[in-house]
Amino acid sequence: MARLFENADIGGIELKNRLIHSATHEGMAAPGGEITPELIKRYRNLAKGGVGLIIPGYMYISGQGKAFEGQAGVHHDGLLPGLIKLVDEVHRHGAKIVFQIAHGGRQSPRKITGQPPMAPSSFGRDPASMDKPKAATDQDIARIIDDFAQAARRAQRAGADGVQLHCAHGYLLNSFLSPFFNVRKDQWGGCPENMFRIVREVISAIRRETGGGLPVLVKLNANDFTPKQGITPELAAQYAVWLEELDVAAAEISSGTYYSFHTTRGEVPINDLAKALPLWKRPIARLVFKGQLEPCKFRPLYNLQAAEVIKPRLSNMPLILVGGVRTLAEMEDILARGKADFISLSRPLIREPFLPQRLMEGKATEAQCTSCNMCLAGMFNNLPLRCYADGLPK
């Protein structure tokens, strides 16, 4: 157990162990994105529960980038008092905190933002909202880059230990990186170097805005699992090399978009997910969800194979593994074999915020999470984050 619970460092952030709370949408923020007492309570418990680093659910950087009701925001200075309280509470109980900053892109529904979703390219419709996205102009992209930089400035002013760019799960930066979503032929698409350009520019803008002193982490898709080929582990490895050249503090490897359940492999609660949709969409949605049952079955360490492609390409940048990590033995084995440098947990910490402490004290050897994905169904029904293994409220 020594390696999992030894002190560690990410970009100068001193952590008490190698366990990370992976960003998980909470649905607990006020309508304007303000931090609420419920959010602070959740992260107070996680900090007291022994996790080394907390990455809260993705915070939207602009009104156009909001993806869910109840999502926390970091898009204007008026939010700073609540963000400061959140940071102070986490620090008070011995954990560090990194804000995940995000733009929902084509997954920001018009019914929430009042605007067409933004994407690198305008083809198709989002499979969840059925909204048709608008292709970003050069002016749009310049504004988005600045929005990320200003969000990082606010994170720094709030006292956060760093920021994590959300480049996964089909959101805006992921869609620029993905050859499935990005079919542009200009300087922002057409080849990996151009598709990566927006991430490079965002990181540069953050460094300028924050004086270079704020660690930047990245959450990166290694598999998009889109209808046609998107990001693969090989392409993700190239992106990871470029991130390391930019002195990114760490990369967290994930997978999946709204086209599949590969992000949260496990059960597919068909009826509860369909309930979140308008009546006319439900029969089609149930058919689509049934098609996900077999390919998205739970299997342990489901992002490890991709990590094994990416990790050997890196020199010093730490790699964070999330996805299907459930037992202490798995965590120790991954670290001992150098397959990853940190372990990131999402669903297990919804059910058991004190799991890290229990593992460290020898009171548990595995998570109780059954990967039923009822927490995901709750999210899509605009319910606050919790374990709904016993069913959603009637």
Find the count of extended strands (DSSP E, 2+ residues).
Answer: 13
Poorly predicted parts? none
Strand content: 5-15%
Element-by-element helix/strand order? EEEHEEHEHEEHEHHEHEHHHEHEHHH
On the 0-100 scale, what is the average pLDDT?
96
Structural class: alpha/beta
> What's the overall geometry?
globular
Output the strand order for the largest sheet. 3-4-6-9-10-11-12-13
Number of helices: 14
Largest sheet: 8 strands, parallel, barrel
Helix amount, in percent? 25-40%
CA-based gyration radius: 19 Å
Distance between the termini: 42 Å
Walk me through the topology.
Blueprint: E1 8-10, E2 13-15, E3 19-21, H1 37-48, E4 53-54, E5 59-60, H2 80-92, E6 96-102, H3 110-113, E7 118-119, E8 134-135, H4 138-158, E9 162-167, H5 172-177, H6 192-210, E10 216-223, H7 233-245, E11 250-255, H8 270-274, H9 282-290, H10 304-310, E12 319-322, H11 328-336, E13 342-345, H12 347-351, H13 355-360, H14 374-380
Parallel strand pairs: 3-4, 3-13, 4-6, 5-6, 6-9, 7-8, 9-10, 10-11, 11-12, 12-13
Antiparallel strand pairs: 1-2
Helix pairs in contact: 1-2, 2-4, 4-6, 7-10
Structure description:
With 394 residues, this protein is of the alpha/beta class. It contains 14 helices and 13 strands. α1 runs parallel beside α2, α2 crosses α4 and α7 packs across α10. The longest helix has 21 residues. The radius of gyration is 19 Å and the shape is globular.
Descriptive keywords:
13% strand, alpha/beta, 394 residues, eight-stranded parallel β-barrel, globular
Question: How would you concisely characterize the structure shown here?
Answer:
The chain has 394 residues and is of the alpha/beta class. The chain has helices at residues 37-48, 80-92, 110-113, 138-158, 172-177, 192-210, 233-245, 270-274, 282-290, 304-310, 328-336, 347-351, 355-360, 374-380; strands at residues 8-10, 13-15, 19-21, 53-54, 59-60, 96-102, 118-119, 134-135, 162-167, 216-223, 250-255, 319-322, 342-345. α1 (37-48) packs parallel to α2 (80-92), α4 (138-158) packs across α6 and α7 (233-245) packs across α10 (304-310).
